[in-house]
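Why does residue order matter? Because the sequence determines the fold. Keep that principle in mind as you read this record.
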Amino acid sequence: MGARLRQAFNLKIDNNLGVWKRCTANELQGEAGFKKCLQLTLYRPRDILTLLNQSFYNAKKGGREQLILADLEKSAKDISATRLDDLYKEYEVVFPGIANATSIFSNGSPELSIGQSCDLVLDLMGSRQAPEVKQQLEILDSPQEVLRSLYSVGFLGTHDKSSGSFIFCHDGKRPDKEFSSEDRVLIHPCYWMALNLTRNTLNPNEAEEINDEYEIQISSTTPKIREARLGSIIAELGKIKHGEAGAAEFEAWVFKAVKIAFAGQLENIELHPNGAASQRRDIVALNLGKSDFWKLVREKYKSYQVIFEVKNFEDLGSTEYRQMNSYLCNEYGQMGFIVTQSADTTLRADRELDWSKEIYFNHQKLIIKISAKFLANILSKLRAPQNTTQRSSKCSPYITPTLVCMSVAKPRARQQ
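Structure:
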């Protein structure tokens, strides 16, 4: 370090400590001052060079030739913020909402138990988020999966009891063990200052306990986790028996599919929210009216609460249409959805189409038939997050098919 400073400032001082004193001021002078500098790094030469280069630049902008502590602290925070921003830029496409998932750790301790971390993630999963973020969280399904994804991008490290070190990963690998509530995780120190954590420096012993691969290979298993999770859900549909035998299983599948497909568009999606009532609606969700389609449903059809009735068979009859007609009142408005095991959403002439027309013209209510395969196709299109985030919110892949469904199901006007 002394040699680099001599060359940079054209100094003729032989003693390295003398060089350091010449380049610093106040509390930074001497060995204690240099240790303050080291504490803002991971005690690695490249980190120290980066910090000092930025610090001398800040000092020069301030009209000073010598470093002061404020230069170092500002540089360290800027570097930390830049690295966090780089993390977001690299992974936002494959991990929508990574900024939201990391921000939950702000202003807290850098070291937490898995139990504490899961509590933070649960709060995030229960909060209102942008559709693509909410959808990613629904796909990952559990706080543990979110933490594994944060590990795979190098944000979190896991404590290895055998070595006593925190192990970080930057090559997309997942932890090779299941998390228990007593396990510990550590936020990578390079993000501490950006997140305003309760600590912002390391001592040498702590730095040695961090097993961190310096060369970062931008990769993540998160897209594979997403793809595998959605693939598994889609595959489950084919194993469900039609009729009463698979009714509960089919209902659970539709509930799961609706939560993912319409995440961020519908909220408070509940299964049997009025289970004790005489009219027990299967799935009900709050309509936020955030997309063109759901805004239409909310404003034109006054459906502030959306109903999905689940029927584990193919053909709908008068009973199913009368049932839905009786449900559509008050906050449920004039539009409802029936999810079936039918191969498509087409209404059959002289049967479903007639019942749909009668209810539409006599009661001004629109009942839309959706097939489970239709929902499965929506989930299939969501396997690649980059495909969804590159489209506008007005034409997202999980809303457009529903608009098509509506146009197919809506009865034609009567001939005069």
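Strands lie at 111-113, 156-160, 165-167, 184-187, 210-211, 266-271, 283-287, 305-310, 335-340, 366-371.
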